[in-house]
What does this fold into?
Amino acid sequence: DTHMPSLWCSVIKQLKSINKNSEIYQLIQDRFLREAAILEQLGGGSNQIPILHAYFESNGEFYLVQEYIEGKTLSEKLRSQGRLGSDVVKDILVKILPVLEYVHNRGIVHRDIKPENIIIRDADNLPVLIDFGAVKETMQTIVSESGNTPKSSIVIGTPGFMSSEQLSGRPVFNSDLYALGMTAIYLLTCKMPQELDSDPRTG
It folds into this structure.
């Protein structure tokens, strides 16, 4: 930011809507503003969620301006140093679970927890939770000709890290815990969820 003495860095995310119909555009705009307000609230209450600096619409497209987190994602850490030890993974879990509890206590399901969406911040070695699925849902909402939004058609998440109920379009708080558990297994084994054996009795 060239207008601030500190010249702090931001991330600017451009979120493209999938439909230019004016009625649908208004619906997406309303939801985008609501989701931005949620991100502002979350980032203001936890230093392990990026602060939302601004959000705006320009030429029919939406933008989020968020705090830039200096550090490496868990995926990047694995690529550079191989699988992580159990003590390291336990430490990450102990430090990220209160953030998840904070998010859930506000009635929000993250919906896309995975190694790419947790950054270990250089400054204090704390895990930071990024890229909330709620905003993705706003942009990817499928709207029928009548203007209705069929919730069953909205599936946000990453295959392998998604629980079965989330895969069927009904995410709940424990869906995030499932995804975090799969993330921990990945950190310990360097195996993607699709590479793991599953119990034929339970899936």
Notes: The two ends are 49 Å apart (CA to CA). The helical segments are 22-45, 74-81, 86-104, 133-140, 164-167, 173-189. The first helix runs from residue 22 to 45.
